Amino acid sequence: MCQITVLPSGLVFHEGKGTTLREVLVREGLLLDFPCGGRGLCGQCKIAIHPPTESGSRGRNPLPDAELQAGLRLACQTVVEGDCTISLPEGGEREVRWRAPSQQEETLLPVGAPLMRRVPLRLQAPSLEDQRADWERLREALEKAAWAQEGPRAQEGLGGRAGNGQERSCPTLEEVPVAALESFTELLRRNLWQAEAVLEGESLVCLSCSREERIYGFAIDLGTTTVDVSLHNLETGRQIGRRTLLNRQSAFGADVISRVQSFQADRRAVREAALDTIREACSLLLEEARIPPRQVVRSVVVGNPIMIHIFHDLNPLPLASAPYIPLVSGMIRRPATDFSFSFQGYGAVETLPLISAFVGADTVGVILALDLEHRAETALAIDIGTNGEIVLSRDGSLITTSTAAGPAFEGAQIRCGMRALEGAVTSVTIRTTGEVSVKTIGAGRPRGICGSGLISGVAELLEAGLLDATGRLKDPKQIDSSSLRQRMVQEEGQRAFLLCPEERILITQKDIRELQLAKAAVRTGIDMLLEETGIRAGQLQRLRLAGNFGAGLDVPKAIRLGLIPRLPVERVDVAGNAALRGAALALVSRDYRLRAGCVHRGCRFLELAGKPGFQMRFAEAMFF
User: Fold this and answer.
1) Which residue, 93, 454, 496, 505, is most buried by CB atoms nearer than 10 A?
2) How far is Cα 508 from Cα 490, in angstroms, rounded to an integer?
């Protein structure tokens, strides 16, 4: 066995020869980006290794000689050859701390009729004369107490009719595990056969000692890149806390197709990576709020169709090839024990329904959060990420599509790209004097460029005349400003613009091409939706930018690049993570949960593949 020492943590592992360092890091839960899924293509899993190895120095996209001589290797291509010390890159944090403020992300939700309700119980204590089973005793108390809440007209005896004449359904035990029933009876005995019953509809979820013991639930946005979680009081809708972590599945590739391929090779590891991220985020929130898991009784999960399939341990392969059919599309409800969610003591975990093989539960969440199916206006909502989901609403009539934007908006496959973490460049300014300044998350030293920083930087290059409409960086000889001319350099055989000389953070010609492909995909989807419905861009009364990426987007610069239609800035709203907000609404509100099912059935999907004019529109959208 070979000893592997990992710096700067000082962790030590033992591994046999021939195992790749990627396998070791993934197994041990050490975060390192593998956007290409470990195929040696993206070059973003660089680590320093001593002594240097022969493996990892070649491959389809080898590192420059200078980096190889410095001991850098690709973790996905490097195999253990003997005892070694590896240094992981700076900034291996997992929490996404930066998020632009949004009026859409208020902490109190409009609950309306809450999904959960409480019923006070007083049971007849058992005796030698009354030897009924605990559940029978509890069921009778539930029926009497629940019906008593309906008023005097409901007092017509067990199994009778409600005051409106309809047949009454009795509270059931169908979703209460045997272990939970045992804890219920222990509580009743300790509390002298009095308790508060928590019901979801007519189903018993849990018992609590008193009304003072609050009940909580989690809204979970299971994204390809990040997992965004919020904790809510289920009776008031108030948000208690929120955490956003990088999805551990990023070790299996930046895009959903890589996840599908990895799932075929090791489905348990891919699924557990996502579940572990959810468990970590939820447990951290409970610890901060000092809430015991027994008070968590419901969770709602949203995500794209592939992530939802993996979450339920369903093979997503049929989603990745024609005719693109999901295994399931409706709302799925399962006990929390199916996912080993130790942070949830009782109740169910639900995933919202899918609209198609490409438009998932996260888009249903966006529609709910923005009330798109209810508003009497013509509006466009765009959730920009690795996949770009677009919804067009005209007086409540919904049509949607999805575009494969690729990972450029997430900072992947970009020369100095990184996630939106501390040190990421988010904004670039090029002044007429030739001065260049950047803003970073955390206002600290720049470490790389995230997606919003790339958009900002390319827009500034356009405005400064350093980039033409085709996306080509100009020859330094064509640049009048001497200070800007000095920033135009050669990097790995291509032109590049140097943003931060000391840190050598730059935007290369290839980075610009990657951005052009991503923005063309999104813009083509927008234009074809508008064309399908006969709506001109100028007729849009509102454009809503959703998602964590959209929250950090500079709207004028996005318009300048042609990512979104040219509209008055006041018509464009930044909605934040609307998918998570929609999940939270379905978590706490009976009405919103019902609406989710209606959206699933009433939203039309527009398939772009094979549409006449698609390729021509895509090519046109490549230009700035």
Assistant:
1) 454
2) 9
Give CA–CA dist 262/248, Å, rounded: 13
pLDDT digits (tens, 9 = 90+) for 567-582: 999 999 999 899 999 9
Helix ranges restricted to H, 374-475: 451-463
DSSP class of residue 448 equals: E
Q: In angstroms, rounded to a whole number, what is the distance separating the alpha carbons of residues 483 and 299?
A: 55
* Residue 62: partners with Cβ closer than 8 Å, 6 or more residues away: 68
User: Hey, CA dihedral for 547, 548, 549, 550, is it positive or negative?
Assistant: positive
Task: Give yes or no for a cis peptide into 568 (omega within 30° of 0).
Answer: no
- According to CATH, the topology of domain 372-407+515-621 is Nucleotidyltransferase; domain 5 (3.30.420)
CB 347 within 8 A of CB 116: no
Contact 382, 376 (CB under 8 A): no
Helix (H) or strand (E) holding 227, with range, is strand 226-233
116-208: which CATH topology? Ubiquitin-like (UB roll) (3.10.20)
Q: What CATH superfamily classification does 2-87 receive? A: Beta-grasp domain (3.10.20.30)
Q: Which of 170, 109, 149 is nearest to 368 (CA)?
A: 109
Query: What phi and psi values does residue 424 have, to the nearest 5 degrees?
Result: -75, 135
Instruction: Report the alpha-carbon distance of residue 588 to residue 600 in Å, rounded.
Output: 19
Domain 2-87 matches domain 116-208 at the CATH topology level: yes
| Domain definitions of the chain by residue range | 2-87, 116-208, 216-351, 372-407+515-621, 421-503
Q: Is there a contact between 71 and 49 (Cβ–Cβ < 8 Å)? A: yes
pLDDT at 91 over 60: no
Helix (H, G, I), strand (E, B) or coil at 389: strand
CB proximity list for 207: less than 8 A, separation 6 or greater:
121, 184, 187, 188, 195, 196, 197, 198
CB 286 within 8 A of CB 293: yes
Closest CA to 333 of 346, 315, 352: 352
In the chain, how many H helices and how many E strands? 16, 26
How many beta carbons lie within 10 A of that of residue 53, not counting itself?
Answer: 18
For 593, the token pair is: 């949960």
Residue 601 CA to residue 580 CA, distance in Å, equals: 20
The CATH architecture annotation of domain 216-351 reads 2-Layer Sandwich (3.30)
Indicate the length of the chain as a whole number. 624
State the distance between the two ends of the chain, measured CA to CA, in whole angstroms. Answer: 55
Residue-level pLDDT at 94: 57
Alpha helices in 76-177 (DSSP H): 134-148
Give pTM, 2 decimals: 0.87
